[in-house]
Amino acid sequence: MDRQRYEYARLNQEDLSAIPSTVSKLFIEADAAQLYTRPIFYKIQQEILASCYDMRIQDIGPLVDGVKCYLMKDVLMKDKLFEVKVSQNHVDCSCKKFVMCGILCRHAFCALNHFEVVKIPRLLVLNRWSRTAENRPSSSKFVGVSDDFRKMETVSLMVSNIWFSFQKSMNKAGVDVEKLSYVDKVVKQLNSDLGDGSGLTKKAHMEVMMGPQPTEDITIHAPNQCKNKGSGFKRFVSQREKTIKEGNKRARKCKFSQSSVHDARTCPRKNDSSAGDAEKNKSSTEKNKSSTVDVTGEVEVDSGHED
């Protein structure tokens, strides 16, 4: 535990005390250095550099409702085109890397750069990858990027921007007592000006995103079969894995004909091989007998000569 705490504190100190250096002169790379932790920034940096060197824009659609569609090609992937829809506050790529990994792809950065967006949209900055993850509110995990949540897109964007601004102010205050006292005074005055309103609670947020909670009774039945013992669980093996496992096994061969189609019991050459072995055994037995007779004769001759 002490080692984990030390590593945790060391990584936090590296992220908050220094900013990694940028390779290109793009504003969006400098913005990523301010937002992401060091390991995630290096992955983002690779995608940004790849967007500059490996992307080829094939077609650009018209601007409709602030959204422009790009059709681009990756030189590292032959005969495959990617469709990217980009606006000032959002970007969506057909490769779906952001959905799978949580970071933007090279196609998205290429479209953002061509669309003259100098900062990464804050809706696409996940809390777990940011340098200020500990200071972000718990409600930020409800920030969505899907088209189904456009009703909450403006509110989520404003909440993210406010928390980024507040964290920036706290970093500027540092450990200065006077500046921290001023920030505390301003926050208290803001709380008194806002009153005692409950604001947007977690329940209200969920109702806006997924609809109100049903009022009628809901009956949930138990499943037909349930496995609640960990030792009884077996992983389902796919047909592909079964085929690979069977292919790696060494095929059994017939000892007579060395064929893998049949075995020694059903070999058509079994009788021939048995007869051949019997003849060999018979001939070897006759040779042994003859050699025994020759040795006996020689012994008898030698004994007669001595007499």
The sequence of SSEs as H and E is HHHEEEEHHHHHHH
Secondary structure tally, helices: 10
Secondary structure category: alpha+beta
Note the quaternary state here. Answer: single chain
- The proportion of residues in beta strands is 5-15%
Number of strands: 4
Keywords summarizing the entry:
metal-binding; 10 helices; alpha+beta; 49% helix; 307 residues; 4 strands; nucleus; FHY3/FAR1
Overview of this structure, please?
This is Protein FAR1-RELATED SEQUENCE. Belongs to the FHY3/FAR1 family. One of its GO terms (molecular function) is zinc ion binding. Pfam families: SWIM. InterPro entries: FHY3/FAR1, Znf_PMZ, Znf_SWIM. It is built from ten helices and four strands, in the order αααββββααααααα. The protein is α+β, with helices and mostly antiparallel strands and about 300 residues long. The longest helix is centred in the last third of the chain and has 37 residues.
